Amino acid sequence: MIKVLSRRNLFRFGSLGLVGSGPIGWGFLVERFRLAVERVKCPLRPRDSALEGLKIGVLSDFHFDETREVAFVKHCVAKMNAEKPDLIFLAGDFVTRNTKVMPELGGLLKPLSAPLGVYAVLGNHDYRWDHGKQVETHLQKAGVRVLRDQHVLLSRGGKTFAVAGTESVIVGKPDLSHALKGVPKETPVILGAHEPDFFDRSQKDSRVFLQLSGHTHGGQIRLPFFRPLYLPRYGQNYISGLYTRNQQHLYVTRGVGTIAIPARFACPPELTVLRLTA
User: Fold this and answer.
1) Would you tell me how many other CB atoms lie within 10 Å of the CB of residue 170?
2) CA quadruple 140, 146, 38, 159: dihedral, nearest 10
3) Which of 16, 51, 78, 112 shows the smallest number of beta carbons within 10 Å?
4) 3-class DSSP state for residue 167?
C-alpha cells in the first residue's frame, strides 16, 4: 500500500480519536488507500466480436476536495497507465462541492494516456455550482474529452464503435437519443453514465452494449452479508460490479475517493480494467 495520508489529515483524525486499532482505524487509515485493481472479462455479442481484446480502464468518484490526497491520485494514475488500456473512462464526481481544486486535480490526471483516448462524464456533484463548467474546463486542459450527451466514433480491428456520455440524471437532463444521434443502428456503443440506475433506460437501446457508471462508491461503508447502509438516488438498483441483461452490460465501479466520511470498510477503492471477450 502506498503511503498517502497527509500530516494534516493524520492530525485531524488523531484529534478525533479515530487513529487506533480495530475496524475504525482500518477504515480511516488503511482500507481507503488499498487500491484494488479489478480485471473483469465482459462478454461481447457475436455481432461485435471484432472488438475482442479491447481493454477499457475506468476510474471514478475522486471527490478530490474532500481530502486532497495528492499522492493517492498519483498512485491511481500510475497504476492505470501501467495496465496499458486501449481507452480510459472517468465516470464522474471529480469534486464534491469545491471546484477551486480542479486545476490541481487536472494536473494530476494529465499523465493518463491511452491509444484511443481518455473520456469522461460529469457526476451530480460536479454540477453543483456552475453546471460543471469549471470541472469540464480543467479536464479538457488535461487532455480528457468530456462527453455531455455526445459521442465520438472510434475504430478497432476494422470495426467502428462509439464512446458516448450522458449528463447526470440527478442534476442534468440526460438525453440518450441526442447523445447517440447519427450512430448507425449496428454500431456498438460504450456509454458513460454517472448514475448506474440509468441502465434501466440505456439498455432499451440495442446499440448500447456496455454502460460504465460510478456514483454508489459500492456503499463505501459495508457490513459483511448486508446491503450497504446508504446508497444515493439512482444508485439503488445496481451497487457494484458487472450486471448483464439481454446481452447488454453495466459495470459499476466502487470509485477511488470518499464522501462525507473519509473511510471505507469492506469496500476498497477500485481501479477497473474491463477486457472485452468474444
Assistant:
1) 17
2) -110
3) 16
4) coil
Q: Name the percent of the chain lying above pLDDT 70.
A: 91
**Backbone phi, psi, residue 52, to 5°:** -55, 135
Select from 27, 101, 21 the least CA-distant residue to 62: 101
Grid cell, residue 55, equals 481493454
DSSP string, 80-116: HHHH--SEEEE-S-S-SS-GGGHHHHHHHHTT---TT
In which residue are the cell numbers 480542479 written? 102
pTM: 0.91
Report the CATH superfamily, name and number, of domain 37-277: Metallo-dependent phosphatases (3.60.21.10)
Q: Could you tell me the three cell numbers for 1?
A: 500500500
The yes-or-no verdict on residue 144 having pLDDT over 60 is yes
Position 157 scores a pLDDT of: 83
Residues 6+ apart with CB under 8 A from 60: 90, 91, 92, 93, 123, 194, 213, 214, 215, 253, 255, 256
Q: Long-range CB contacts (< 8 A, 24+ apart) of 11-16?
A: 13/262
Q: Which helix (H) or strand (E) holds 197?
A: none
Every domain of the chain and the residues it spans:
37-277
